[in-house]
């Protein structure tokens, strides 16, 4: 199942557009869904969003980063207690 199919708020955000994460980063979409709704989502998504100079990787496109940020915001709205460590 894709992020767009699984998360109705993300589907609303994308509208008729497809998710680039779903299309081009299936392994990443699967991991996001695995962590969705759990406290572990926050450190996982932060590692993706923050550029760590010690790690050598090319990074994501602006479009992917935008989707990851939106997913992070949706998760924060849906699971506010989990974001504060409660």
Characterize the structure shown:
This protein has one domain (3-83). It has seven helices and no strands. It has helices at residues 3-6, 8-14, 20-24, 26-35, 41-49, 62-78, 80-83. Helix 5 (41-49) packs antiparallel against helix 6. The protein is globular. The mean pLDDT is 90.
Class by alpha and beta content = mainly alpha
Number of helices: 7
User: So what's the oligomer here?
Assistant: single chain
How far apart lie the N and C ends? 29 Å
Give the low-pLDDT segments: none
Mean pLDDT: 90
Rg over C-alpha atoms, rounded to the nearest angstrom: 13 Å
Task: Estimate what percentage of residues fall within beta strands.
Answer: under 5%
- SSE sequence, one letter per element: HHHHHHH
Helix content: 55-70%
Largest sheet: none
Strand element count = 0
Tally the structural domains.
Answer: 1
The general outline is globular
Name the descriptors:
7 helices, 86 residues, mainly alpha
Write the layout of secondary structure elements.
Layout: H1 3-6, H2 8-14, H3 20-24, H4 26-35, H5 41-49, H6 62-78, H7 80-83
Helix pairs in contact: 5-6
Summarize the structure.
The chain is mostly helical. It is built from seven helices and no strands. 65% of the residues lie in helices and 0% in strands.
């Amino acid at each position: 199942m894709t992020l767009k199919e699984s998360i109705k708020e993300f589907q609303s955000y994308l509208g008729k557009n497809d998710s680039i994460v779903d299309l081009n980063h299936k392994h990443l979409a699967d991991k996001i869904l695995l962590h969705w709704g759990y406290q572990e989502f926050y450190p996982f998504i932060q590692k993706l969003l923050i550029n760590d100079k010690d790690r050598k990787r090319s990074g994501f496109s602006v479009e992917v980063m935008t989707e990851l940020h939106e997913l992070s915001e949706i998760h924060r709205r849906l699971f506010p207690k989990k974001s504060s460590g409660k």
